[in-house]
Amino acid sequence: MTDESAMPAPAEPAGGEADAQIAESLVRYIEALLMAAEAPLSIDQLVRLLETTEAVDRDQVRRALATLGERYLDSAADLVEVAGGWRFQVGPDYSMLVARLWEERPPKLSRAMLETLAIICYRQPLARSDIEAVRGVSVSSGIVKTLTEYEWIKVVGYRDMPGRPALYGTTQRFLDDFGVQRLSDLPSLPEIKDLDTLDAAVARLQGSESAPSEAEPPSGEDAESGQADARAAEIEDRPRDLE
User: How much is the pLDDT for 102?
Assistant: First the structure.
C-alpha cells in the first residue's frame, strides 16, 4: 500500500510564483503607463492599453492599483483617483517645494476669475447674468474665455428665454486639477447670494478657511486685471503628474 504522506506535494508553488510574477509585471506596466501619461487614466483605459501586452480585466487592474498605491504610501508621490481616472501627483508635504520650479512665472488667475469660477462651481448651471448679479459687476468675455481655455468651464445648456443665454458648468478637467473625483467632494457651502458668501467660496477653492484679507473688492475692469492670488498660481502651475 502506498504511503500517501510520503508522496510529493503537487507543484503548486511554481504556479504560485508564476502568478506572483504576472501580478508584479502588471503592477509595473500600470506604474509605467501612469508615469508617462499626460492625463489621468481610467481603469477602462488601462485595460485597453494593456490588452496587447497582458490581457487583464477591470478587477485585476483595480487590485494592481491597490498594490501600487501601497508602495507609494511612504513616497513623495501619491497615487490618487480623480474624476478622470488614476494619476501620480506630488504629495501635499512637497507641493510648496515643487512650486518653486515655477515661481518666476507670473500668475495668470485674477481675483475676478477665481470669483467667477467659484460662483459657477457652487451654483451651476447658470448664465453670465447670474454671475453678474452676485458679483455686482459685469463679467467680461475675457474671463469666460480664459476659464474655458483652461478647460475648467463649458457650456452645458441654454436657458429657455429670449436670446437663449448660455448656461455654464464645470468640467472633468476642473475636478482633476482641483484633486477631487466629483463636485460633492468639494467643501460644502451655503448658497452663494452675496459678496460675503462669495469670499467664502473663493477661500474654499483655494483650500483655506477664510478669504485672503489683502484681497480688494472687485470693481469693473480692475476686477478682471487685479493681482492674482498666489494660491491660484500654485493651482495653475502645479504638476499634474510625474514625468
Answer: 74
